[in-house]
Amino acid sequence: MPTGAYVRKLSGSFKNCLICNKLIYASKCRNNKKFCSIRCSNWLPKRTKEGILLSCDYCNKEVYRTKSGIVSKDVYCSRMCSSKSVGHKISIKLKGRKLSEEHKKKLSEAHKGEKSYLWRGGTPKCKVCSIKIGYKCTYCVKHKHLLWTKEHWQAQRIKTSKALMGKMPKNMQREGKFNNISRGWYDINGKRIFFRSKWEVNYALYLDWLVKNNEIKNWEYEKDTFIFEKIKFGTRSYLPDFKVFSNDGSIDYHEIKGWMDKKSATKLKRMRIYYPKIKLIVVGKNEYKDLTKKIGRIVGFI
Q1: I need a labelling partner for 231 at 20 to 30 A (CA). Which of 70, 99, 137, 302 fits?
Q2: What digits encode the pLDDT tens for the residues 43-54?
């Protein structure tokens, strides 16, 4: 060793690897070092979960279930066993019952792997080559390219628009608070009605107050839907909030609009074009605030 050379003092300690017993040096900062390499660290046995060994309800095979996994009453080792046990339970229930010949045929053919098709009116076939295909399919693998034509997609769009015509979207039918709008069931004069906002609830209370004071005859919530038959895509229908029957026999439709978006604006525009004789009153932010100031306390707004 040359004179004047700097010798570094070892501040750590030497240890043996837990897997291969190889001597390793662990410094002060890495005092928890237990393995010589990543390969040895991967050999560490995995943490065992605290569970129970249960027997399968169909084949009595032992199945390991964790504490969180023991929720359902029935225990099965596989999907095959669960389906077989369900079939066995159904056969016990149907034992002694008289079945029709058509029902017997369906049950006998169901074991051939075509049950899902038979109960939906026969096996679906390709429109071009009439080969058996999967449920909800129109073409086979060879003729699948026909799905990507412009005509097919246009027909599909018309089909979906017809199905949604005159219906409210599913997210508008859910109960709960979404942003500043709270939807739910409310009791008004003994009637339980589902309203889409608190503004609508308060306006319904106001209309009920008008009925009691003999200013209007009656009112109904989301009664009539107006369909725009000439339009093929987009907003094809409109459902006003309130149908108000006045004392002179005329009918008005009232719409509560806290915020006017593009879709609602097109609905109102198309109502003027296709149904010009129908009287529609739009109650906006300013009109609603005036109502709350004047009659809010008297009516008992929420």
Answers
A1: 137
A2: 655 555 567 788
